[in-house]
């Protein structure tokens, strides 16, 4: 999504973090991380969540996790699905497939 889209602008009112317009017109999340204000793309935030999930799975399984199948809401468009796949790659996962949550 783009920073200027009405849905993004409206949703920003309820978020507990600041969102600014990136150079490419996409939203950038400003958050305090380790005592410093940093800018993150939505994909970077998603990758942090996926990386943590990967760590938890590795601890539970007692072995490295390399491959993943990731579910997304059925209403995600192709761009959002690709962004989720990119987040998985950033998290160190080999994303085998992106599937809709109802299918999963």
From TrEMBL:
It comes from Amorphochlora amoebiformis. Belongs to the heat shock protein 70 family. This is Heat shock protein 70. The keyword Membrane does not apply. Keywords: ATP-binding, Nucleotide-binding. PANTHER family: HEAT SHOCK PROTEIN 70KDA. One of its GO terms (molecular function) is ATP-dependent protein folding chaperone. Pfam families: HSP70. SUPFAM superfamilies: Actin-like ATPase domain. InterPro entries: ATPase_NBD, Hsp_70_fam. Signal peptide: none annotated.
């Amino acid at each position: 999504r783009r920073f200027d889209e009405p849905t993004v602008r409206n949703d920003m009112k309820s978020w507990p973090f600041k969102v600014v317009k990136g150079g490419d017109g996409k939203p950038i999340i400003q958050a305090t991380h380790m005592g410093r204000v940093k800018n993150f793309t939505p994909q970077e935030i998603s990758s942090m969540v996926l990386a943590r999930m990967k760590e938890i799975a590795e601890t539970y399984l007692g072995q490295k996790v390399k491959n993943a199948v990731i579910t997304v809401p059925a209403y995600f468009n192709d761009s959002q699905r690709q962004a989720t796949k990119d987040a998985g790659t950033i998290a160190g996962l080999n994303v085998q497939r992106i599937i809709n949550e109802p299918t999963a």
